[in-house]
Amino acid sequence: MNTESLALQVVPTDDDDAEDVHDLSVRLRATLLDLDVASVDPVPEVGPDGAKGLGTVLGALMVGLGAAERIARVLRTIGAWVRHTGRTVEIRADGDVLKLTNVSAEQQNRLIDAWLERHAPRD
Q1: What are the chain's domains?
Q2: Which residue has the higher pLDDT, 75 or 121?
């Protein structure tokens, strides 16, 4: 399987308002832009007729990896961000979802490794 992009969603808590989630996604975006990826862009809203809306999907980012080999580094960086912030991020690729939460680094690494088995580039 060749994954070249990842869709991310910062999952809001019951106490979050739109500004909180937006600020979190801006911080996550800045963290990911420090990596060697092609792009990290907010996801635009899509109207019912398929036309782009006036805003962005709250907390959603699209990461263009540029090369599928970068997926592990991106996931580990998101995992560190999740542990640091105590937040949850859902990652989607090829119809599969990985939900990273504030669990131990060991548990998180096992989840990431299992997900990578399904999505990492094959030689």
Answers
A1: 5-119 (3.30.70)
A2: 75
